[in-house]
Design a protein that fits this description.
Helix content is about 30%, strand content about 25%. It is of the alpha+beta class. The longest helix has 15 residues. The protein binds coenzyme A.
Length: about 190
């Protein structure tokens, strides 16, 4: 298996390698900003680093998301304006919102950035009068499930063979509350 991993790493961009130890980034002041077409290349690179098992979206998909009038896309950036995380949400015609992707760079994780992005989205949806937000997550992705549970999502359904490799998913849903639930957690002192 180690041999296979070595071959795989030779074929992957350096940033996607799984055995490279993560050195936490220096602490910085983060801010949530719009994610636009001008950020396409940067978000593609970060998306490759976040989704290392071929689950990453293509340039075509990101281009679609960043140009949809019914999409809400944000990034969380360092003080130097480097992208540390991103989120894209689509609002369907029936008014239901759907998180299509969320990722945080490995060196910026466990600092509450994904929570901040979800809170920001929740607030924006609240202002638009959207009532609920949903997403799918792999049953094996415990980190993401913990994140969503901590932000007030509940698992409402198991989706059999939902993913391309046959893995099941969970459908998770929460009522939009203006970011209230997650904001309570984000009121804690800055984590580093
Ligand atoms: C999932 C992901 C977005 C979380 O980003 P993050 O910025 O590190 O998350 P946060 O710091 O906001 O975490 C908030 C809470 O979520 C839970 N959580 C986050 N990562 C976790 C982990 N690796 N293990 C267990 N719980 C975790 C914790 O409850 C955490 O609070 P705590 O740090 O006080 O314990 C990030 O790990 C990632 O980009 N993963 C790869 C892409 C991915 O899986 N996206 C989701 C697809 S459905």
């Amino acid at each position: 298996m180690a041999f296979l991993q070595t071959i795989r790493n030779l074929l992957l961009p350096f940033a996607s390698r799984e055995d490279v130890p993560v050195v936490p980034a220096p602490m910085t002041a983060y801010s949530v900003r719009p994610l636009t077409e001008t950020d396409l290349d940067e978000v593609l690179r970060l998306n490759l680093r976040c989704f290392v098992n071929g689950e990453n979206y293509t340039k075509h998909t990101f281009n679609y998301l960043l140009t949809q009038p019914n999409a809400l896309c944000y990034q969380i950036a360092t003080a130097e304006r480097a992208m540390a995380g991103f989120i894209c949400v689509l609002v369907a015609e029936n008014g239901a919102a759907h998180v299509t992707t969320i990722g945080v760079a490995p060196e910026h994780r466990r600092r509450g950035l994904a929570e901040k992005l979800l809170t920001h989205v929740d607030t924006a949806l609240f202002e638009k009068g959207v009532g609920s937000i949903m997403l799918e997550v792999r049953v094996s992705n415990r980190a993401a499930q913990q994140l969503y549970l901590s932000c007030g999502f509940s698992i409402v359904q198991r989706l059999s063979s939902y993913y391309n490799n046959g893995e099941d998913g969970f459908l998770m849903v929460k009522a939009v509350d203006g970011g209230g639930e997650a904001r309570t957690r984000n009121d804690r002192p800055e984590r580093g």
